[in-house]
Every structure is written in C-alpha cells, then in structure tokens.
C-alpha cells in the first residue's frame, strides 16, 4: 500500500507567537483554496487518490451492497396540521426523500434537479395545512432559498428568500410567518412583504405554541443558550416584545398552555413547568435522571410522554402531566433510536430504528402501555446476521467507557473499525447504517465508543475537558486489542466532523495502535478553527484560541499541531467536500500535507475531495459511493478480504 512519492507541498517557515508560545503553521498557504499553488496541489492529490482507489479490491461490490441496503428507503413521523398529514418518504431507487401531504408527493428534489444535487433542507407547514415553507439548497452548501408552496395547487407563492441556512420558521397564520436570516428575525407575509423585527445572535431557533399565542426565540452561541418568550396576543406581530427566560436551555408552550422548561441542574436536565406569563415562577415536574438524560417530550391529553437515553439506547416513558408521577414505560420494538415525538390529539408518532431495522413509524395512543407499528420502512432488504456485545473499558482516570461491538457470528480477532464522536452532546445510539452492515457482512467488526462529550456526559468532555474524550477513545481501542477482538494491525478508525477530530487526535497520539483511519470532513487545526466555516459558533464547545487557557488545551490535542516527523502513522484517508460550509476543507488539506511529509509508515496518506456535496445530506448513490471508498480503504489497511 505504500506510496513512494507524494505531490510536492512547500513547507513554509511561518511561526506565530501566541500567548508566549511559538506555533508553527507550515502549510498556512493551503488555506487559500483559490491560489494557483493550492489548485495545482489539490489536482495532484486528486489524481493520486483516483489511481489508488482504482486498485482497491472490492470497492465496486461494497458500493453495490451499500446501495442495496440503503434501498430499504426512509420514512419520517407525520406532522399534523388541521387534520392534514405531512411526512417524508424515500422509496427504493429515489435519490432523496420526498415531501408528502396526505400521501401525495408535493416536493421531490430529484424532479427539481435531475443532477441530484438539490436537497430539501427543511420544511414547515402552516397552521391550517394549506401552505408549507420549504428550504432548498444545492451542491451541499446548506445555504439556499426559502419558498412558500400552496399545498393543493403546488404553486409557489411570492418570491423566494435567498441566502437561508436552515432558517427556523414559525407560522403565526396561513398568511404570515417569522423566520431568521442574517441574524435578524423577520416577519414575512405570503405575498412577499418582509419586515425585520429582532436581532438574534448565535445559532437561532424559533418555536410557537399550537394556538399561536406564544413565540419562543432561542440563540446558541459562545455564551451558551439564550431564551426569550413573546406574548403574541397583544400588540402588532411586527413589534413583539420578548422577555428573557433565564436559567433554561430549552422552552416550549404545550397544548395545555403551560410553559415547559429544560433546566440544567448538577445531575442533568430537569423538566420544569410555569405559567408563560411568569416564566421565573416555576416548579420541577421531572427531576434529573443522571442515568437517563432527557431527550424529548410531548404533551398528550392526560399524559406527559418523555424519551430518554439509557445505556446507549432510547426509552419512552409515561408520566402524569400534572404531578410528574411515573406511570410506566412504553413497550418498544427493541434497543434502538427514537426520532422526534410528534403529537395530535391524544396520540404520538415517532420513528424507530436499530442496527437491523430501517426507519419505521410507530404510534402511541394515550393511556396505553405499548406503541404499534404505523408505517413500516418502504422496502424489505436482505440483511446480514449480526451479533451485538456491550463491553466496558476503563479510562485512565477510572471512568467507565461503554463500547458496543457489532460483528458477524464467530470468534477470534478480526478486522475492526472503531467509531466515535465525542462532542456537542450528540447520542451514539443504535441505528440502521448501510455502510456498517456492508462491512459486517464482509466479515469485519464495528465497535462504537460512547465517550465523554456525547449525550448524557456532554459537560464532562467539553472545553478544557476535551482530552477526556480522547482518553476514553484510546481506552476503548486498548480494550478491543486486549480482549482479543482485534489487533493493532487489524484495527481501523472512522470519524466524521467532530468524530474526525477525535480519530485524528487518536492516531497522532498513539499511531502504533492502529492500522488505518478515515477522517471525514474533519476539524484538525484547532488553533485556527474558529476563523472558518461555522467555527465561530463552536467556541462554547471547544473554547477560543484567543483565550490563553483555552489556547493551551486546544494546542494540546490539535491533530495538525501534533504531527511529528518520522512517526510511523497508519494509513490515513482524509475526505473533504467542495460544498461544505460547516467544516472548511482546508483542515483536510493542511493535515494531508503534514502527514505525507512526516510519516515513516508503510500505509498511504491520501486526500479524497468530492465537489458538489457538503457536510450534510446527499443523494443515496453518492452516499453509497463515499461509503464504498472509505470501507475499501479500511479493508486494505486492516487486512479484510473482499
């Protein structure tokens, strides 16, 4: 697998003194994607990757199998408006999910763009179900236009609003809605009239009560989450007067007219209730459960339905709406993942998925003890046989780290992928993943490390504590080796976005533990991350290099700055995307140049750059192609025969 010559990358002598510490940045010039030197270097890297990929065994068969497994399709829980049902479905052979109203397709991105680069980023139906706001973007940028569609005729109403990035929408009637663009909350009427109303800092969010009386405005930024609540019953919609709601991370006004608040306490999130007119006069309805953090809730006629995360899977629990008394658990199909709860009258709908179950929609009727299947996945596919084991590693500070191992039947060391994320409080729960199943079917194992920084232990892995996530991840790797599940020459790594940061930090800290790694859309230069993409909005998670204390811990694990000449690094494939507006591809470019110059290992260091896609959703065929490339690379590096 060894590459004898890499494209020439000029190693500069740039050294900055930051907080009294010299910081070398020899590949700063690769930050400029449009420069002649970067364009030439990138083209040579692309040619090198294509030549290498063409010789990877099993690449095409992996793509076909991943595509076949993905053809189970997707379906989402319905959203109800005035008795009308809105939901997404993707049938076998369709490249993107299609928005349906009462079973009729109303927005199909593939019909709008035969090139399959247009994505439906979000959709929000009006209270009467007669209109729907849809946001469409192209080439993976996640920045596009907001349109208003007449549900019955398909007619676009008024001019589109350009420059929207997952702009939150809150309808106040079938003729007007609030939305956020360019840090301003605006009131837009369907005829196209637009009025700027309020400034919203950070990452914005809007929520509105079912009766349209209360608007919740949220903003997440470096200082944390800020909440404001506006009473829309009084005054003009163009001049709401929101009041701060302190000491809460999330808020919603339920169908019972009460304000529900997610309140941080020492042991986790509590659920409190208040009169929305007096949000500071609140009482705790559900205290924190440190073993099962709160994930979502919805209010039914007499029941409070709550989803929680426990032992790496989701559970659904019933509580008395008035007293918070526990009424019991709702029986679920298995240990899996629940989507957002959607309620209408005294029923709730949610998606369910697990390792061997494509997304299904289940329904719970108030007063019952079990949910029932409401809509199955669109198609049946042949699935491999998978065994699941739950292991526990021990981090150096004594913290237990749960590790889920998925493998085909049989025993003994085998090529294994270790996957992790470790940030933003996101859960690593069981879900249907065609790429994972294709790997297991081929004879490999997949291990998922539930490290600090994920859901339930977010605060323990954030900011100055980020190294804990790395230590947890390395403890999981050592457990797999010491337990005979795999060996260093058969252990690969897989991480995406923040998970790519975790993987790169692991391979630069302990390169001898791993045979191969793939880093997808990774953050890698943590000294300069906040200057690019959505980096400025992540300083609450990582800290800012402008702060001396935060700078020290950022530099301590920043993968780009931890590359050492002569180290025997494993085979590494860095994947970046031309439309990625979250994590700039410059991270992958700089890391690729640094590793190619430094490594003394036999494994290749390669860069796979794909234009026309971004950080998020893409057409099913392109997703299968990416998965096949990454899996084939890992198979070659870990010795999996395809």
UniProtKB/TrEMBL annotation:
<keyword id="KW-0645">Protease</keyword>
<keyword id="KW-0720">Serine protease</keyword>
<dbReference type="InterPro" id="IPR023302">
    <property type="entry name" value="Pept_S9A_N"/>
</dbReference>
<dbReference type="InterPro" id="IPR002471">
    <property type="entry name" value="Pept_S9_AS"/>
</dbReference>
<feature type="domain" description="Peptidase S9A N-terminal">
    <location>
        <begin position="9"/>
        <end position="374"/>
    </location>
</feature>
<dbReference type="Pfam" id="PF00326">
    <property type="entry name" value="Peptidase_S9"/>
</dbReference>
<comment type="similarity">
    <text>Belongs to the peptidase S9A family.</text>
</comment>
<dbReference type="InterPro" id="IPR051167">
    <property type="entry name" value="Prolyl_oligopep/macrocyclase"/>
</dbReference>
<dbReference type="InterPro" id="IPR001375">
    <property type="entry name" value="Peptidase_S9_cat"/>
</dbReference>
<dbReference type="Pfam" id="PF02897">
    <property type="entry name" value="Peptidase_S9_N"/>
</dbReference>
<dbReference type="InterPro" id="IPR029058">
    <property type="entry name" value="AB_hydrolase_fold"/>
</dbReference>
<keyword id="KW-0378">Hydrolase</keyword>
<feature type="domain" description="Peptidase S9 prolyl oligopeptidase catalytic">
    <location>
        <begin position="438"/>
        <end position="636"/>
    </location>
</feature>
<protein>
    <recommendedName>
        <fullName>prolyl oligopeptidase</fullName>
        <ecNumber>3.4.21.26</ecNumber>
    </recommendedName>
</protein>
<dbReference type="InterPro" id="IPR002470">
    <property type="entry name" value="Peptidase_S9A"/>
</dbReference>
């Amino acid at each position: 697998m060894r590459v004898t010559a890499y494209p020439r990358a000029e190693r500069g002598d740039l050294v900055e003194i930051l907080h009294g510490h010299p910081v070398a940045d020899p590949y700063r010039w690769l930050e400029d994607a449009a420069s002649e030197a970067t364009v030439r270097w990138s083209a040579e890297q692309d040619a090198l990757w294509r030549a290498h990929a063409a010789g990877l065994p099993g690449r095409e068969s992996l793509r076909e199998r991943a595509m076949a497994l993905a053809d189970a399709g997707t379906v989402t829980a319905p959203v109800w408006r005035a008795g009308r049902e809105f939901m997404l479905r993707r049938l076998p052979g369709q490249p993107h999910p299609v928005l349906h109203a009462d079973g009729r397709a109303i927005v199909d991105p593939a019909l709008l763009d035969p090139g399959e680069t247009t994505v439906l980023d979000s959709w929000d139906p009006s209270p009467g179900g007669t209109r729907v706001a849809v946001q469409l973007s192209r080439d993976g940028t996640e920045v596009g236009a907001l349109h208003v569609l007449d549900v019955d005729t398909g007619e676009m109403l008024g001019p589109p609003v350009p420059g929207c990035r997952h702009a939150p929408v809150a309808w106040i009637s079938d003729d007007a809605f609030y939305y956020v663009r360019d840090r301003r909350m605006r009131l837009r009427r369907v005829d196209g009239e637009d009025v700027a109303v309020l400034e919203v800092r950070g990452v914005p969010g809007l929520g509105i009560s079912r009766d349209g009386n209360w608007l919740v405005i949220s903003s997440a930024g470096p200082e944390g989450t800020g909440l404001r609540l506006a009473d829309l019953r009084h005054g003009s919609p163009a001049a709401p007067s929101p009041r701060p709601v302190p000491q809460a991370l999330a808020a919603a006004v339920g169908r019972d007219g009460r304000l529900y608040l997610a309140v941080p306490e020492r042991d986790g999130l509590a659920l409190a209730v208040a009169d929305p007119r007096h949000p500071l006069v609140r009482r705790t309805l559900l205290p924190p459960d440190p073993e099962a953090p709160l994930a979502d809730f919805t209010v039914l006629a007499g029941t409070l339905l709550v989803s929680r995360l426990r032992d790496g899977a989701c559970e659904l629990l019933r509580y008395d709406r008035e007293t918070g008394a526990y009424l019991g658990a709702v029986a679920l199909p298995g240990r899996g993942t629940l989507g957002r709860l959607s309620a209408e009258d005294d029923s709730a709908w949610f998606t369910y998925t697990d390792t061997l179950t494509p997304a299904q929609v289940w329904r719970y009727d108030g007063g019952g003890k079990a949910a029932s299947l409401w809509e199955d996945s669109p198609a049946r596919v042949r699935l491999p046989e998978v065994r699941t084991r739950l292991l526990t590693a021990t981090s150096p500070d004594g913290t237990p780290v749960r590790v889920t191992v998925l493998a085909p039947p049989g025993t003994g060391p085998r090529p294994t992928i270790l996957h992790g994320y470790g940030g933003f409080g996101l859960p690593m729960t069981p879900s249907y993943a065609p790429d994972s199943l294709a790997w297991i079917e081929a004879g490999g194992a997949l291990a998922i490390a539930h490290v600090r920084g994920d859901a339930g232990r977010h605060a323990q892995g954030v900011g100055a504590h980020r190294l804990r996530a790395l230590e947890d991840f390395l403890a999981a790797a050592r457990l797999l080796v010491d337990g005979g599940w795999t060996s260093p020459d058969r252990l690969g790594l897989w991480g995406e976005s923040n998970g790519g940061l975790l993987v790169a930090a692991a391979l630069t800290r302990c390169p001898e533990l791993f045979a191969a790694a793939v880093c997808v859309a990774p953050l890698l230069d943590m000294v300069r991350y906040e200057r690019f993409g959505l980096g400025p909005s992540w300083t609450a998670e990582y800290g800012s290099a402008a702060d001396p204390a935060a700078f020290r811990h950022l530099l301590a694990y920043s993968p780009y700055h931890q590359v050492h000449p002569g180290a025997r690094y494993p085979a590494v494939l860095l994947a970046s995307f031309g439309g990625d507006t979250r994590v700039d591809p410059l991270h992958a470019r700089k890391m690729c140049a640094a590793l190619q110059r430094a490594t003394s290992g036999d494994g290749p260091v390669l860069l796979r750059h794909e234009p026309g896609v971004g950080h998020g959703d893409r057409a099913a065929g392109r997703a299968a192609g990416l998965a096949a490339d990454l899996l084939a690379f890992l198979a070659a590096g870990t010795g999996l025969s395809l």
